[in-house]
Design brief:
Rna Polymerase Sigma Factor, Chain: A; Arc Repressor Mutant, subunit A; 2 domains; 9 helices; DNA-binding
Amino acid sequence: MNNDQQIIAELKDEATRQAAFRQLVGLYKERLYWHIRKILLCHEDTDDVLQNTFIKVWRNIDSFREESGLFTWLFRIATNEALTFLNQKKKKTFTGGDETTAYLIENLQTDPYFDGNEIQYRLQKAIAMLPEKQRLVFNMRYFDEIKYQDMEEILGTSAGALKASYHHAVKKIEEHLKSEE
């Protein structure tokens, strides 16, 4: 039994659930935080979505069928929570995609926790300008180094479509960075 299987078994047992949940949070909190942060680009929003992610995990662990790995399941929940948050924000605040891009770039510019240099800022700005799916795929592949097979399960899309999205994202980022030189 690997570590994830043991954690799942302990989460499903009332006697060990709380200790196992603390262990799960300790193991995955940082990776999930940065995954969500790359989607939202705002520390406060990321904290809220991360909390919602772990609440959803707590409430749904008994229905986890273990058809995918624990990591994949957690990332799928975190991704869906982040996208739901962003879509709710769009409905309340924005009328179009350009406004969403402007919102993400503003989050990047005003984020007191962003400590990158000018090159990192330009890269993050170029990523923020990508369509949502390309932005997700690029971040998951480039920064999180998630395999296409795992991304298929997390995003519910074929590896071929994911590879195409990544390729298009890279080209758009390169073009944007060259245009700013």
